[in-house]
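Hi there,

I know you've been waiting on this one. I reran it after we fixed the sequence typo, so this is the corrected version. Both the input and the resulting structure follow.
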Amino acid sequence: MVDKQYPVSGAGFGYRRCMSETLKDADATAFDFLEIAPENWIGLGGRFGKAFRRYTEQFPFIAHGLSLSIGGPTPLDMEFLNKLKAFLAEHNIRAYSEHLSYCSDDGHLYDLMPIPFTEEAVKYVADRIRQVQDVLEQKIAMENVSYYAAPGSEMSEQEFLLAVLEEADCELLLDVNNIYVNSINHKYDAEAFLKAMPAERIMYLHIAGHYNEAEDLIVDTHGADVVDPVWNLLQKTYDHFGVVPTLLERDFNIPPIPELLQEVEQVRFYQNQWKMSHAKTVA
């Protein structure tokens, strides 16, 4: 564990447009922060824009991007980055993260494609991350992504991720569900992967549900409840790193907010459980 200042604290969930009216009726003490995809909100007006402004003035927000395409072959979209910079400042967004993947060439692919795990890719991606950080004038976090093929790999996912973080000098959005999903699909030790991550670079955590296609194939859908093995891995994350801000992702089959908050409360339960255990150990 390291003594680290996080941009937010506690447990939160992803804010979606379908929550514009219902969030105001939710128990505001039941969560600590919210996350949005900036692409869905930049320049948005009308009732959705007004509701968003009201909530950003009320709650801490962080942003998790969808279209930066940090590993893509085409130049970075500087027009988008400048709009993003203004958006983050306008709404006092506490932090920005993106996927360690790519989603575009001449046009958007509407999926997150795996970056080849090679030394050349490490240098290429790290250079692009540094460019983004220079434009935004802040460090960003890159997320370990789920992937289903690893074409042209010369190193492991773990080696690649650690090399990018070091070379780019950026933060890490550690997705606990993605570790579990990849550990099943690619047959590695999830806890060993977890413990290899640099505590000083972790900005916050993601946790989500997935779909079991087969015994040896899990699809990262963000469309179901979190399962027990992922909850267990989250507890091990806290055991190893201490309590890290944790965000519940739900992109499909989104239940009513009171039901969603039950899983947020489960995150809080494990966080408080660790705090109580640690307090007893210190005492």
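Quick highlight: Residues 11-282 form a domain with the TIM Barrel fold (CATH 3.20.20.150).

Best,
R. S.
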